[in-house]
Amino acid sequence: MSKFNENYMITMDDIVREGNPILRRAVDDVPMPPQEEDKAELRCMLQFLKNSQNPETANQFHLRAGVGLSANQIGLNKRMFAVYIADENGELEYALFNPKIISHSVSMIYLPQGEGCLSVDRKVEGFVPRQERIKVRAYDMDGNEVLLKLKGFPAIVFQHEIDHLNGIMFYDHINKENPFKLPANADIKSLYE
User: Fold this and answer.
1) Of 6, 145, 161, 177, which one is the catalytic site residue?
2) Residue 126: which of 77, 192, 182 has the closest Cα?
3) Active site residue 161
4) What is the rounded CA–CA span in Å between residue 179 and residue 79?
């Protein structure tokens, strides 16, 4: 039985850090329909993101704010992630199994301040090129197939998390010679242009 259930609170001690081999390998699909244990783990992950964005809770438990969390970031070999984005446009909340990008735009975007990661304790400078729009096929908590069209910041977050599930870190996309060099011949702009 997994410790990650409704009664468990994920803290930074549970987050696997870079260098751990589980972050560098593709994780296994979750058999559908999901088992109670899988759903409990995913709900626990989503609750961590909400806690991490609540200033009071984050301060009390020393949580770093996160918008996405993949199962392998808490040491689970399961293809699932949670995303929680709260901004002036409202809240976006996802808890998904076996997500896969099935199509994407030619146009690209990047976060001008770069990307961060709960599994990376250091500041990594550089632009991370991402597709501006993506279409994702995944399964929800009840095992129903869902098709999601995402653009802008949510698309960036999804690509970051799906990369995790494939053993790819965000800094793998940064130009090694010049971290602030963008891909040549690409239709790419800053997210905030």
Assistant:
1) 161
2) 182
3) yes
4) 30
Residue type, 182: L
This prediction has a pTM of: 0.96
Fold of 12-190: Peptide Deformylase (3.90.45)
Q: Strands (DSSP E) along the chain, which ranges?
A: 68-70, 80-87, 90-104, 108-110, 130-131, 133-139, 145-151, 188-190
- The full set of domain ranges for the chain reads 12-190
Residue 62 pLDDT class (50, 70, 90 cuts): very high
CB 137 within 8 A of CB 145: yes
- DSSP per-residue codes, 69-90: EEGGGGT---SEEEEEEEETTE
Sequence letter at residue 35: Q
